[in-house]
Amino acid sequence: MSLNLEKTVKDWIDTDPNGDGLTAYFEVPADRPQRFVTVERVGGNELEYSSHPTIAVQVWAETRWQASQLATGLVLPRLLDLDTLDPIAAVNVESVINFPDPGPPFQPRYQITISLDAAAQ
Question: What domain of life is recorded for the organism (predicted)?
Fold first, then answer.
């Protein structure tokens, strides 16, 4: 059975002891919390012995400032620690951008795009 790195990232965010109750989802929930995170695999490649997914992590909040602060001050440091998990060998941050959801309803959002290097299992 292969490792689902998208789920690994979601679970890693959900279990952040400094996360202050921030929850990650695979899809935008129908009843949107004021702040939340979505995790989506958007590319990458799979080899016989390694996995290299590209994952978009979107941080949603009440204001652009709050989305920026959550993304860069809370979520990004947590993502950079993914390489402490076995079998993730490296985390590469591809981008951190303001990416507001035009709605409806409009909601401020920041997107962090990462690529992972991991052993395939």
Answer: Bacteria
